[in-house]
What does this fold into?
Amino acid sequence: MAKSKLFILVLIIGLVSAACGQVKQTQASTFTDKQAMAMVKEAFQTQVSLSEKPQPMEDIEKQLNESFTEELTSSFIEDNVVMAEGGYMTFGSDFAPHYIPFFSYDKSTNVDYKNGKWYIWEERTGEDEGPVSTASGVEAVVLTKEKGNWKVASITNEIPDHLK
It folds into this structure.
């Protein structure tokens, strides 16, 4: 009798554990590559909009916190936001740190999910034509979950080898 109760208990624990694992996998797969790319595009627009007019620092933090991790929001503000008449704002620059790159958001934009992170990147050949020049190499944005929401965690020139 005791063996059958133990068996039933182990069976129930196993089924509950399997169900929880399936729920976590389903939650991770509900965020798609198209959503990841759209989020990066929206985050870039948020950054650009900060140069339109001075505003209170609290408003800037709120806007950035919707798309960026707390750490990246803090770094972006420290390196790019300045006091201006009537509040705070950013000034445009081709070399400002923590800005999302000028992606084309087409077939040359790569998106992949690995090890709990989304990677969005483009490989650059080094162009000097047009309004924006680029150095050769990779420009990437990494998304991670913070407090249950996907957010931009870093902007980098490196991606893991298994994505190349």
The chain has a mean pLDDT of 85.
